[in-house]
Specification:
single chain; alpha/beta; eight-stranded mixed sheet; five-stranded parallel sheet; 26% strand
Length: 832
């Protein structure tokens, strides 16, 4: 034990004052011989004995009061340990109290009340009280204090040991720079508050200390600064830290700090000969954070906890700079009806308006669109009412006005303390209509599929997505020869009975060079041999054999709901309805080994229903039942898929997009995700310009003979994608939410635009609980502080132990009250 003011311990001499006063001021009664009182001699003797017992107890209490006053003022500290009673120790202490109460009650009833003389009862009561107190103390010492001191001394004997104030510290200061740290309170954000607290803490470090400063927004290695002045200078730079839209999880940042401490400690011990006692630094990690769950990964907590278990000499201090009653209004979960559209199409953009406050609020959301010069102008606005702690969806529409990249953003006009999630940027690409050929012998059978792709109503308004052309099987070869320079994006063979060998050969070359071919088998007149006799099994999904009848009607079982053909319906929770369509007839197909079955029929054999296969640069797809309503009037149609309305139209659209190469890189992703930019074939090896938010721009190199360019601030996904394609990776920081645009030197090449949005949970105000902190760091391995004063107390606790002032003051109050109680009992005039 140590004390902060050792000179004050001289005041312990004051404990002798009650002893001196007791002997000097003790009453000396005069001796009087009074024969009539000889019969009371025995009573007097017992009373004196009882009063002596009270005198001794009162004297001890007064001495203890003075001792505790002196110790409390001197502020002693105890070595770091858990001095609180455990649950088992509390239970044993309660048991002692109950046992003492029972013993006192039994003694009072069966022993103290038996004598008839009042002086005897008083004597027995005094003895019973003394015995109860002494017995309770002894019993508490035996079954509570003895195990307690063994546990405490075991903790004091661990490798951590007590600390000293003058030992230099090796401290790592970690700052959470997540977007949520931009929360404004009292005219400063959370990073500014954290930086000020860190600056005060650095100034309290002992001479010879060294500091490392890091955050979860940078990838640079962490190093110690050997001069405290250098750490102060770095913390004083206002531009050194700012909230970042893209940041790493704090788990990895803390693990990196632990590894730094391990490496530095091993180096010092190696220089000193390897003895643990030779580490001349106290090792500490300070984490400045708003304590929001989004910055941590609880699923990987075991890894962080394991690293800390291997470093018992390391102390963790969590400085919470967050706001308890924080409120936030924001936008999240952006969704576009389509990312790639044709000019004049209507684009629908939706988002969730989030209300993280206890009150209902009205939020004004604005739609801003690019005016062609790079500036955003407001085109629409809507007011939405959001219940407390809930979300409401908002939807707006706009017309894609010009070809090329078209960008805009949703903006929350309602002000709040956290602005990071007040805007949602988005990009769409306006492109020429994709050309679709439907090859069919009977136009009436192709009508429903054609209307699903290009409805007459949209065609009349020039708002249709696809340019659909109808051809007969005899025209396929000649039309492909004529369109060699500009082939269609997708060709459908719908219930085609026969094709010539020339036509099959042209289709094979078409798919190999990047075309998409869809084969729909929904008629009894189809000659299945014609689909195998010209070596088509080398590149089509499967071999049609015979058509079969399903009785009762079968349905579809979706095997791959994640595939692009079905993923959109899966997102809309419409696959269950799609699967209810009745299938009366279908073709049995033997799928090739290279094919992938996306759906099966629910018959006993579970025959393939939808099959896909890649060939060369293109895709082929086979549907083993009809998609039309031929003979529906006589209820002889093969399937009811065409009766599904908008679900059928959405499925036809997604199937066509897949065959047309709809797996193109998305234009809208979360911050931190790599972007894959399709490089036009006519682009030569030269420099392009990447225009970024905040009027920043950077040059990038267009790869030679590459099909895509990877722009990334996160290497993981980018590396895997680059290995699977002929891609060049350009390491450019795109860690800010906003709209980006790639400007190619040639005017003949359209600009490429993409947008990065903040992750939906980045600004969630859900805070870590104490249990989750235990899960991350382990029990009793961390100290939480909310201010510099609390942090100072936590550091003192870790370096010199636990200050005993609160314990001494509690004991002082107890003994002071006991002294008053005994004094009142002693001086009370008792009735005869």
């Amino acid at each position: 034990m140590s004390v902060l003011h050792p000179a004050l311990l001289l005041g312990l001499a004051l404990a002798a004052i009650p002893v001196v006063l007791h002997f000097l001021m003790r009453a000396r009664p005069k001796k009087l011989d009074f024969p009539a009182l000889r019969l009371l001699a025995n009573i007097k003797k017992q009373s004196v004995q009882r009063l002596r017992l009270r005198h001794v107890g009162l004297l001890l209490l007064r001495i203890l009061v003075l001792i505790l006053i002196v110790l409390a003022v001197a502020r002693p500290t105890l070595p770091a340990a858990n001095y609180g009673l455990s649950s088992g120790e509390w239970m044993r202490l309660i048991f002692v109290g109950i046992l003492a109460a029972i013993g006192y009650g039994l003694g009072k009833y069966y022993w103290a009340r038996k004598p008839t003389a009042q002086y005897q009862r008083r004597w027995r009561n005094t003895c019973l009280n003394s015995a109860t107190v002494v017995g309770t103390i002894l019993l508490a010492l035996l079954i509570v204090a003895w195990p307690y001191q063994q546990r405490v001394f075991a903790e004091l004997g661990n490798p951590e040991g007590p600390r000293q104030l003058n030992v230099p510290a090796a401290a790592v200061l970690l700052f959470d720079v997540s977007a949520s740290m931009g929360y404004q309170h009292e005219n400063q954000n959370r990073i500014e508050t954290a930086r000020k607290l860190a600056l005060e803490q650095v100034r309290t470090f002992p001479s010879g200390s060294k500091v490392a400063i890091s955050d979860n927004g940078t990838l640079r290695p962490v190093k110690f600064l050997n001069e405290l002045n250098a750490a102060e200078t770095r913390l004083q730079k206002t531009d050194g830290m700012r909230p970042r839209d893209a940041s790493d999880l704090l788990n990895e940042t803390v693990i990196a700090a632990i590894q730094l401490q391990n490496d530095d400690r091993d180096r010092i011990l190696a220089e000193a000969g390897g003895e643990e006692a030779d580490d001349r630094f106290l090792r500490e990690i300070y984490i400045y954070t708003d304590r929001l769950s989004s910055a941590w990964q609880l699923e990987e907590a075991s890894r962080l906890r394991a690293e800390l278990e291997r470093a018992p000499w390391l102390r963790i201090y969590v400085i919470d700079v967050g706001i308890d009653d924080a409120t936030n209004y924001g936008l999240s979960n952006l969704s576009l009806s389509r990312e790639r559209v044709v000019q004049g199409s209507l684009v629908r953009v939706t988002a969730d308006v989030v209300n993280q406050s206890p009150d209902e609020t009205n939020c004004l959301v604005e739609l801003l669109l690019d005016d062609g010069s790079g500036s955003l102008i407001k085109r629409d606005q809507k007011m939405v009412t959001v219940p407390p702690d809930q979300t409401s969806q908002i939807a707006m529409t706009f017309v894609a006005e010009k070809n090329g990249a078209f960008q805009g953003e949703l903006k929350l006009a309602t002000s709040d303390p956290l602005s990071a999630d007040d805007t949602l940027p988005f990009s769409v690409f306006v492109q020429p209509r994709e050309t679709i050929w439907i090859v069919s012998e009977k136009p009436e059978e192709a009508f429903v599929w054609q209307q699903a792709l290009a409805p007459n109503g949209l065609v009349e308004r020039n708002a249709h997505q696809y340019e659909v052309k109808m051809y007969s099987p005899q025209q396929v070869a000649s039309q492909l020869d004529q369109a060699n320079a500009d082939p269609p994006d997708v060709i459908y063979l719908l219930n085609v009975e026969l094709l010539s060998s020339t036509a099959w050969d042209r289709l094979r070359n078409y798919v190999r060079t990047g075309g998409g071919l869809g084969i729909i088998l929904g008629s009894t007149r189809i000659d299945s041999l014609n689909y195998t006799e010209y070596a088509q099994l080398e590149w089509i999904p499967g071999k049609p054999t015979v058509h079969s009848r399903a009785n009762p009607p079968a349905t579809l079982e979706i095997v791959r709901p994640d595939h692009p053909v079905f993923s959109y319906l899966d997102q809309l929770d419409a696959l269950s309805l799609f699967s209810t369509a009745g299938i009366r007839r279908y073709f049995k197909i033997e799928a090739s080994v290279e094919s992938s079955v996306l759906a099966r029929f629910s018959d006993k054999e579970r025959n393939p229903a939808v099959i896909v296969r890649s060939f060369g640069q293109g895709q082929t797809l086979m549907i083993a039942t009809a998609v039309d309503l031929a003979d529906a009037a006589r209820q002889k149609n093969w399937s009811d898929l065409a009766r599904l309305g908008w679900i059928y139209a959405a499925w036809a659209d997604q199937t066509t997009r897949f065959l047309a190469g709809g797996q193109k890189s998305p234009l809208n992703r979360n911050v931190g995700s790599p972007m894959f930019i399709e490089v036009p074939a006519e682009a030569s090896r030269e420099k392009a310009l990447l225009r970024m938010p905040g009027l920043r721009q950077s040059q990038i190199e267009i790869p030679l003979r590459s099909d895509r360019l990877v722009i990334s601030s996160s290497r993981n996904e980018a590396d895997s994608q680059s290995q699977n394609s002929n891609a060049r990776q350009e390491d450019i920081s795109i860690g800010t939410a906003g709209n980006y645009r790639v400007l190619f030197p040639s005017n003949a090449i359209s600009d490429y635009g993409f947008s990065l949005q903040l992750s939906d949970n980045e600004t969630s105000l859900s805070r870590l609980t104490f249990g989750e902190l235990d899960e991350l760091f382990g029990e009793n391995r961390w100290q939480l502080s909310r201010s510099f004063e609390e942090l100072e107390r936590s550091v003192l606790l870790g370096r010199i132990g636990i200050e005993a002032y609160p314990l001494l003051m509690t004991l002082l109050i107890i003994f002071f009250l006991s002294e008053h109680l005994v004094a009142n009992l002693f001086y009370r005039t008792e009735g005869t």
